[in-house]
Amino acid sequence: MTQHEGHLAPDHVRQLWHLLEPLHAVLYYAPEVFEEAAALGYATAERWPSYFPYRAAPLGAVGARQVASAFYSFSPRMVAEHMDPAWKTASPEALLEARARGIDRAYRALFGDRTDSPELAEAAALARRAVESADTAGRPLAAANAALDWPEAPHLQLWHAATLLREHRGDGHVAALMVAGLDPVESLVSFAAIGAASVERFESRGWTRREWTSAQARLTARGLVDAEGAATEAGGALRRTIEEQTDRLAAAPWQALTPDEVGRLVELLGEFWVAVLSSGLLPSETTLGIGKV
What is the pLDDT of residue 293? Predict the structure, then answer.
């Protein structure tokens, strides 16, 4: 067993991602977080004007090129549209403070009295132990978030841990995509080809129809996608390999917990996961393919 595989089976690693991802994603959909962004001067008619600076803020006042590199699958034009004016509206430090206030308010609205429950505090402590054992070398978004101070309140610690684990996994996923030889738009085309989400949903990443069609043609030439845009047997196998490699690369933090502690964390997260999903805040279809890969 290698250092990166740990003692947790890949399907359990993926289960933990499925449980933690919605707890992180509240940042991009909760009205309380939009209100904090609006108070700083960001447009909130759609989520992207605040999504990019909120997510990029731990990196500091970096430019659109660095953000596009770290986020990977977004069109560089779309990133530039929202990042070029981002730091003129508010500083990264102000955004970090705003997202903490927004998550505090959002979690209290979602979880009510359970926000201050011992069960949430226990879940936060377990998730934090996993995070603090994680190696962030070669993982720019995970490293940037890991450099931030831990909040004091347990519910904010849970969100911070979920965010760190999410970005740790995402950085590993980008590495797996590059090893597979998939550029940013090809990664989306190949994901749509296995039915992870609709082509229309992936259009939210800002690529033009010509760019999408060109990427599809490149994948067809590699034998990964057929003429109708569906994955071939080889294309499906490649995506399975990518997801399995992503799981393996995401497993290391969980070595800090015993199998029983992992099981306890899964048990503890359940009610908060249900609260987020049942709130209707998150879209029913996302570009992450949760539940489909």
Answer: 53
